[in-house]
Amino acid sequence: MRILTGASNIMSSITVSRTDRQAIIKYILEGKNRERLTYGVSYDDGVVPIFIIGVDKTDIPALPYPYVIESNNTKYIVSNLVGMIKSTMIDDSLIASRKSDAVYFELMRSILTFKTLTDETPSVLVTITAQVLTIWIREELKRKYKLDVIDTADVEGAVFYYLLKQFDPDMDMSTVKTKMSNYLSGAYRGSGSNIDRVIDRLKDVEGNISTYISALSDSVTLQNLDMRAILSSVDSGWYSGGMSSNLQIYAMIEDFHTAAAIIYHTLNTPTGKKTKLAGLLDNQKRIVKIDQLENIFDKMMNEYVGK
Question: Strand, coil or helix: what is 85?
């Protein structure tokens, strides 16, 4: 599974410069001992989550997503929590700082990145996360552009296919087809389309979500959609409670960890439960295994942070 460690075509403005990278390494290696930097979050000798708290904002760059950096044969997952919580809110553990909804988000995203680097991410979590984002994008585009049954099904097919491949590029085509058949059979019932058509049209496509939608659909409206139009349709559906929400929504299309953390935040924080995404999750419980998703998240949080 791909780790988002640098700039992407959507997030080209948030690269980590060489100078900033050196500042992060210096902070890790010279600033404090490892136990203090992890704030009670479990870690592996070769993969260590680091949380930057209580330092001057000019010393360490803003990190809108966990930045994976390697030094002395150790991979550090660096999250900058400056501005989200005050150092006086915590002792040696981030548990007490759960007063901040934003910390819930960053903790889960760091834990998910950790599990990916140690090859422990449950595959079902990738699938359900892709399902949730697919439904979210489908519903917003359907409402905004008044899509008919065929166009709605094509949006769903293109987005789900894209996210499966984006979140897990190593997924073989047989597995992709099985997952799409299990999830999309209802969407294509009565639409005049089928899963084989979707895969045949998309298997050699490269690009972002809008490219996949254009390749699958014959609709002029959908073929003219660009990423800005797609992202603007969903960017009011979630609010983080302490971060740049729009930036996180842009990141979620490419980064599994951000996408799953957004869902976790929505299910588990007062801020998240007030968003449009929360209402969508509640309405889709029959289709998406939300309970299973919550159980996976809870197990992860308890395992790495404690109760």
Answer: strand
